[in-house]
Amino acid sequence: AQQIDLAVVAGDGIGTEVVEQGLLALEAALTGTGRTLRTTDFDLGARRWHATGETLTDDDLAAIRTHDAILLGAIGDPSVPSGVLERGLLLKLRFALDHYVNLRPAKLFPGVSSPLADPGEIDFVVVREGTEGPYVGNGGAIRVGTPHEVANEVSVNTAFGVERVVRDAFARAAARPRQKLTLVHKHNVLVHAGHLWRRTVEAVNAEFPQVTVDYLHVDAATIFLVTDPSRFDVIVTDNLFGDILTDLAGAVVGGIGLAASANINPDRTAPSMFEPVHGSAPDIAGQGKADPTATVLSVALLLDHLGLPDAAAKVEAAVAADVLERSGRVRTTAEVGKDLAARIAG
Amino acid sequence: AQQIDLAVVAGDGIGTEVVEQGLLALEAALTGTGRTLRTTDFDLGARRWHATGETLTDDDLAAIRTHDAILLGAIGDPSVPSGVLERGLLLKLRFALDHYVNLRPAKLFPGVSSPLADPGEIDFVVVREGTEGPYVGNGGAIRVGTPHEVANEVSVNTAFGVERVVRDAFARAAARPRQKLTLVHKHNVLVHAGHLWRRTVEAVNAEFPQVTVDYLHVDAATIFLVTDPSRFDVIVTDNLFGDILTDLAGAVVGGIGLAASANINPDRTAPSMFEPVHGSAPDIAGQGKADPTATVLSVALLLDHLGLPDAAAKVEAAVAADVLERSGRVRTTAEVGKDLAARIAG
Ligand SMILES: CC(C)[C@H](C(=O)O)[C@@H](O)C(=O)O
Ligand SMILES: CC(C)[C@H](C(=O)O)[C@@H](O)C(=O)O
After folding, report:
1. Hey, CA dihedral for B153, B156, B162, B168, is it positive or negative?
2. What pLDDT score does B271 carry?
């Protein structure tokens, strides 16, 4: 199709602000590609929940499924009980649409300052599993609110689920110059899940003998992220460890205002979803203070996924050029978006 | 008793090297306190397991129980399958002796260089729950090694277990100048466990109204640990999040060569255990390269626990003075230990 049908879930807080700029960047990047853009807005998030009690209905999901991709801003608001929108909307999308590869690049652009004294060159990607682990919602509690309450959370890991994401991570590692894959888990404590991950990585390595594999416990991985982040090329890890490592990685490469992510369904049985790693940031919402760059970089991942690597490269180059001249300047969300779109348009 | 009965579990790798220096520091610190030291070595770890297949027998445990405290070096060796010694020895000690407060201070000593460009003043403690959460060993797998394998790990959290550690953390926060407590969890995803933690912190706060409470998701906490570590005073968190955060915190305050920990049974129904946060580091074992400072600082925590705060302060002051003059000097494990003991002796 020459037309890209994009589902837009701007969501809550700064979500609407950054998505607006992301769409400008996308329009600019599509110029000359022969592709046109059609967007459909989905009213999902805190407003909708307050108005109707709904998070994501079957109809919403069916409608979203007909699109080529999803651009998501941010979900979550303090007025909604914790977990309602996260589980009922964001994670429901990731699980229902089988986004088993949650891809989160961490790259330190020249000109961007890291909180590390001596960051070195940082350019790695985290392949976070997206449909299993402690995120499955398989928990429960008894005697809630009494001194005898017991609250459990179950991490579910399957050979099917681990193998497919591990294979994806190997393929990504094989396509990169350094061809290195680091498995992060905690197999000395979470022995059942951990050993499944470890055996799977060993087995799939046979299909990618050119890829060098190493292993780090999650605690040790956080140490290396601040003492030697250059050592990482591709990290593969479970849903929860990936959540933690990618926020830390985002901070290390200059802040989550720059951290992009792609929730990918590699089998293309449903649309993939592109979103900044940051949240809805209610404290700065509506003030034009949010940095739309993470969303714009997520648009680059979207373009790549839709088979437009040149357009994706243009977007990334625009960001690289913009951040090089940032230091000391204060711009609004819209100003940053306009500058980025102008650079993309070239 | 004027005599301190100390169980010594030197363990594997650099464990023996650092424990030797820790004991020298302890002897030096006890001079003039009227207390004498009697140590009993327990042959536990990789050697014992290879020789007998045992990790920690009922007899070992019963013998250890009769002591006033335990000094532990490090457990783990690549020749032993992952999980065997961790679960069968280290975690078994923590669980059997009800070490529900895993205390891990993070302090940036003047003169120590942090990987952060602008660390600021860092002085906080992590109160990590030690007997519940994903560490309970409540996991299992079916169809292991087949494409239909399912491996689960259960995080178990009880009102009893959460409340006692939260109360301990509040008491510690109340005794510190800033009186601030940060709960770290992930209650937007792990809703059952997370809400138990959250409700418990709210409830216990009523007993400590002078303590200011805030909350961070674990992913956000890792960001602040590298962008604004000064914001933390006391962190209370579950077993797994505490494991991750304290390795990161150790790195931020200059490396886990300096990170001490105490596995405390506050009810004193069994001996508490003091150990460096680092592991057995087989790559540098036997070479005199290990830094014994983390063990010496763990000895300070031990002295505090045994009601000898002045002796503890002496040990900490010796470390503070030593690290101030470290830069550029290379000393062996024994040299650092000798220098620290000399400073403690005064
Ligand atoms: C909002 C939350 C459910 C989500 C997650 O934990 O995955 C977020 O932290 C992220 O990383 O996208
Ligand atoms: C060795 C391992 C079981 C242990 C843990 O995870 O608690 C270690 O990492 C620690 O932090 O003391």
Report:
1. negative
2. 98
